[in-house]
């Protein structure tokens, strides 16, 4: 038998086995994800800066635009890779081109946030250039799939058409300097085109052969990457506090709170049995995948909120303790609400126990805000915020796991 080598000669792109056992993320996918660390970090940092200046509307608008561009491009690549990863030299080169596009997007984020803050127009030129670089590279990959996988040719060409139409629209928005409101309206229209395209294309054939457990793992990995912003925000907060006050009990509390909150959100996220459910009900992937944009956005905003606390401690913020606590508590609430909603969608029922857990999460977050309003320190308030995901963890580990076990039995029967 010929000796196995690491050569990456061209291979036919006919689609991978969606039932392949032990399918996991590849080293190339992990390398690709590193560029998103930079992009998400940049978006989170700009969001924190505007929140600290109490420019709430501009901050939310900028984060929404940025998260869609970043996460949507990642979702499209990951879903394509799950179905058609040949790992030959051509596939690797086109992936590298997409990585370059991600970095360009990251470099354009400060201008985007600044222009939205000024309110005259949206300066998304650099972001659009980077986004188009990513998407054109993906179009080339879809054209290759259309040629080499005849059974799914109509689906592949559908992706080519919808993605190409969207990119023409984005170039128009970037080149023609419009006022803020017309740009927002056109952007929302193009967001719709981007989201509808895959749904229409997948219906043209039996659909692309994506792997449910591989996709679940990939989304989990991006969640971990995004959670890294929570660690970064904690380091920024503690560093600022120690520089101002040296090591105190508050500094210790902030450190514990930041790491504990990040850990709690991680624990919460991986309670969802995404892989097995997607393997049984592939049609649920649309809501599950699109819903993750809310989850990723809320995780990034949580990390930014921890960074806002650093600005408050340093005296470089228009917000006080209450504002800083809200900057963390609100995205934690949105994360929990989105997670419970996705869980209910996957299992096909609204569990009253889960409703109770969400009420408990909300109550804990409200207590943190009330404490801040009463004059408690940021450290103590953030410790209370950390207890919110802990409510879910305790609920699952004591009672909720039985509910999930019953659902899994029904799923397998």
Unreliable stretches: none
Question: How many distinct beta strands?
Answer: 0
Estimated structural class: mainly alpha
Q: Give the averaged pLDDT, no decimals.
A: 92
> Helix count, per DSSP?
13
Rg over CA atoms, rounded to whole Å, is 22 Å
Give the helices and strands as they follow along the chain. HHHHHHHHHHHHH
Biggest β-sheet description: none
What is the straight-line distance between the termini? Answer: 44 Å
Helix content: over 70%
Overall domain count: 2
What does this structure look like?
There is one protein chain. With 413 residues, the protein is mostly helical. It folds into two domains: 27-202, no CATH class; 212-412. It has 13 helices and no strands. The chain has helices at 27-52, 56-84, 89-118, 125-148, 153-175, 180-202, 212-245, 249-269, 274-280, 285-314, 321-347, 352-373, 378-412. Helix 1 runs parallel beside helix 3 (89-118), helix 1 (27-52) crosses helix 10 and helix 11 (321-347) runs parallel beside helix 13. The longest helix has 35 residues, at 378-412. The chain is globular. The chain starts with 26 loop residues before the first helix and ends with a helix. The mean pLDDT is 92.
């Amino acid at each position: 038998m010929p000796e196995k080598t690491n050569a990456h000669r061209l291979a036919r792109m006919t689609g991978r086995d969606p039932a392949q056992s032990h399918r996991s993320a590849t080293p190339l996918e992990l390398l690709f994800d590193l560029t998103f660390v930079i992009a998400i970090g940049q978006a989170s940092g700009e969001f924190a800066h505007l929140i600290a200046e109490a420019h709430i509307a501009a901050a939310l608008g900028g984060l929404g635009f940025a998260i869609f561009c970043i996460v949507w491009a990642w979702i499209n690549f990951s879903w394509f890779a799950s179905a058609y990863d040949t790992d030959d030299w051509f596939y690797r080169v086109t992936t590298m081109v997409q990585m370059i596009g991600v970095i360009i997007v990251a470099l354009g984020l400060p201008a985007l946030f600044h222009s939205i803050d000024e309110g005259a127009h949206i300066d998304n030129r650099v972001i659009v250039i980077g986004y188009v670089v990513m998407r054109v590279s993906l179009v080339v990959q879809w054209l290759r799939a259309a040629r080499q996988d005849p059974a799914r040719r109509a689906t592949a060409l559908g992706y080519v058409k919808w993605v190409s139409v969207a990119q023409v629209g984005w170039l128009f928005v970037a080149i023609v300097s419009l006022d803020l409101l017309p740009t927002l309206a056109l952007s929302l229209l193009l967001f719709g085109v981007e989201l509808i395209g895959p749904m229409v294309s997948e219906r043209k054939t039996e659909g692309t052969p994506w792997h449910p457990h591989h996709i679940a793992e990939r989304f989990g990995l991006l969640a971990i990457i995004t959670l890294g912003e929570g660690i970064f925000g904690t380091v920024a907060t503690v560093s600022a506090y120690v520089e101002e006050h040296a090591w105190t009990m508050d500094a210790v509390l902030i450190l514990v709170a930041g790491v504990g909150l990040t850990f709690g959100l991680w624990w919460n996220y991986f309670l969802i049995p995404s892989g097995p459910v997607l393997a049984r009900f592939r049609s649920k992937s649309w809501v599950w995948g699109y819903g993750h944009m809310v989850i990723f956005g809320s995780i990034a905003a949580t990390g930014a909120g921890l960074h806002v606390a650093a600005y408050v401690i340093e005296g470089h913020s228009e917000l006080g303790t209450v504002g800083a606590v809200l900057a963390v508590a609100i995205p934690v609430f949105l994360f929990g609400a989105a997670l419970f909603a996705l869980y209910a969608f996957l299992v096909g029922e609204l569990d009253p126990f889960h409703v109770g857990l969400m009420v408990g999460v909300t109550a804990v977050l409200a207590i943190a805000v009330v404490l801040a309003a009463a004059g408690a320190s940021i450290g103590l308030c953030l410790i209370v915020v950390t207890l919110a995901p802990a409510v879910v963890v305790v609920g699952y580990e004591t009672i909720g796991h039985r509910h999930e076990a019953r659902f899994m039995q029904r799923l397998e029967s």
